[in-house]
Amino acid sequence: MNYKRILIAVDDSSYSMKAARVGFEMAHKLKAEVGILYVISKMKEQANPDLGTTEHQQHNLLLAEAENAIRQYIDLYDGIDKVYRFTPEGLPEAEIIHVAKEWDADMIVMGTHGRSGLSRILTGSIAEYVIKHAEIPVLITTPRMK
Predict the structure, then answer these.
(1) Which helix (H) or strand (E) holds 19?
(2) Which residues form the UspA domain (predicted)?
């Protein structure tokens, strides 16, 4: 398969840093375009009266956080001619699948926290959902990868 568009799904975790590194390295070697996806979770977008923030203000803070994270990833892994930026709102697992289809990605690269047992059952696994529902290859980086 010829990989021309690699979608890298990130957040602000160290797990995403590894995924971004691997995704950009692959894109360099394959001369592929890169899309960076940071989903703004609707779960975090609630107003916080204790802090005096409205839902709109919270949304703007989350959007700024997403854009800052994407900019940092791009700055760290410079060298790709064009990097597409995606900051959709919603459930991360659904948005990763949606953006991959809409952008016509050939591969998804993302990190995983490597949770297992009760922790995974309680929190779910975005990576597991993406693997099961993606129609393209998914490369998962783990905490144990170097």
Answers:
(1) helix 14-30
(2) 3-140
